[in-house]
Amino acid sequence: MHCPFCRHSDSRVIDSRTSDDGLSIRRRRQCPECGGRFSTIETASLNVIKRSGVIEPFSREKVMSGVRKACQGRPVTEGDLAVLAQTVEEAVRQTGASQVDTNEIGLAILGPLRELDEVAYLRFASVYQAFDSLEDFESAIEQLRIDHPREA
């Protein structure tokens, strides 16, 4: 780690603490050359392999953006979307893989979105799972009815 003050190529870790969410580590460092102190935040990298083969860093904002479209006109807040994105990231990180396919991220979105809003779930699933007939919708709706019967 280069010192941000004198650009010396080394630094010494003085203190390390885990962040509140447990996904990153905050390290307090000191430069042996100039004595300057600075903090760094370290996270484990998580990359997404897109269908085109391009690899890019995982982004909660992209998860939120994709789900936001399915939630248009529904009673879903930005806070709800942020919690969903965090849940998806945690689920994907729990696999232990440093690279995941977009398909795995889509699967990780379906469960939490279904709990959040069933209409948004159907919208997202219809695009993600490429529904191409009314029967696809009917079967998804029937599965929702089986899993969550309405109280009379």
Automatic annotation (TrEMBL):
Pfam families documented for this protein: ATP-cone, Zn_ribbon_NrdR
ATP-cone domain residues: 46-136
Biological source species: Microbacterium awajiense
Bound cofactor: record note: Binds 1 zinc ion.
InterPro entries given in the database record: ATP-cone_dom, NrdR-like_N, RNR_NrdR-like
Protein name, per record: Transcriptional repressor NrdR
Upper taxonomic lineage: Bacteria, Bacillati, Actinomycetota, Actinomycetes, Micrococcales
Biased segments, Basic and acidic residues type: 7-20
Cofactor names: Zn(2+)
Keyword Iron found: no
Domain of life from the UniProt record: Bacteria
Zinc finger (unnamed): 3-34
Ribosomal protein in keyword set: no
Keywords: ATP-binding, DNA-binding, Metal-binding, Nucleotide-binding, Repressor, Transcription, Transcription regulation, Zinc, Zinc-finger
Renumbered residue ranges of the record's region Disordered: 1-20
Family (UniProt): Belongs to the NrdR family.
Function: Negatively regulates transcription of bacterial ribonucleotide reductase nrd genes and operons by binding to NrdR-boxes.
